[in-house]
Here is the input.
Amino acid sequence: MSTQASSASKPADRLGRIGIWSGELRFGEASQRAEAAAELDELGYGAIWFPGGVGGDVYGDVNALLAATRRATVATGIVNIWRHEPAEGGAWWRALSAEHKARVMLGLGISHAPIIGADYSRPVATMAAYLDKLDAEGIPADRRCLAALGPKMLDLSRDRTAGSHPYLSTPDHTAKARERLGPDALLAPELGVILETDAAKARETARQALQLYMGLPNYVNNWRRSGFSEEDVTQPSDRLIDALFGWGDLSKIAAKVKDHLDAGANHVCLQVIRGAIRTDPSLPREAWRTLAGALL
Here is the structure.
């Protein structure tokens, strides 16, 4: 089935160069999330990403952020395909207004075997079958992307979607992904940023955030493919931390963003890291303002 983009504008053009990735915008208090999203829109961030991997009313959360914003693309990072049937996504898509359809990027992910359990198998084939069903539901290829890390999933993201939204990846991975995807596909890596100039404190904050992911083989295997040793990935080394995260003053963070853009990313979504994931539900709005002043 053909999956050519249905819009004259490229997905990367709609997302802009810099976005925000935020779990707080999904799990915080509803009115505060809406207010914060409206501010991100006004600050000029091109896209607002939030996680969907745990299931729940992910499409309702997309709708809430669409209603709160006027210009920014609202993107999922990601919809876990084991938690949501294609028909659910199709019904949601058909109910959207044309204006809201123009501001959606549906990030999809295969999740991880330790999370899904015995049903998890043949990730690339399973994702391809899911995309077949989304085609049948009428969700255009250019309104979806994949959390693609390995070569085969990157190929699928190139051939069947707008492109790739990798998470916890390095500029080196971005370069290799761009080579695999070709020049035109969306490549939108997430980048964790820590506004802390003390190296020991910044790296400890990053290690706290990384603990949630150390037992998930999709990430660990990708770091190995990127040249990190068993020692690097077992007890996260400074080398791994410094490759995955942007930390320090604004000039250092801007340099890390530039590393991804120079390597071939056409959109970078920034996640403000303050420690272990999902332990602080407050919205890091001051950090978002500070980053906007330096990067937008």
